[in-house]
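Figure 2 data, in text form.
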Amino acid sequence: MTAAARAMRLISSARALLIDSEDRVLMMKLAGRRIVDPAARLRPTFWVTPGGSLEAGESFEDGLRRELREETGLEVTDVGRHVWISDKELDIGGERVLTRAHVYALRVSAFEPVVRQMTPEEAESFRGFRWWSLDDIAASRETFIPRDLAGLLHPLLTGDWPEVPIQIVP
């Protein structure tokens, strides 16, 4: 981490790789910010794992349980294995911040996600859910975060779990 990154405000988040019995991963489709034309109706879209920012005083595990309940309707007690850490510098409202996501992998039965609660900003960017297979992710022209999702997932799906969480590129 650079000295500049250490001086930035840190926003911590927790995300979940929800993996079903067919080795599919639940992803959320979101629309990005209106970068070029704020009035534009078309915005770039991308797929991310469920999860989000922690609330004040919340642990990564508690935050993940809350985010899963709010975003997908899934209630979990065990958040699975902490497999990845992802740091990214962003500009939020003119402020440079460092976001740090802790990503947990959890085996679940396939289910139909139901959004229970989203902030207005989240609801405005939300486009839907999909269960993705590794082959579908690898063959897709869609944008995934992390960018090398297929490459990062493959070892997990074959049982090659990291002993400690690995640093990944978002």
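Caption note: The radius of gyration is 16 Å.
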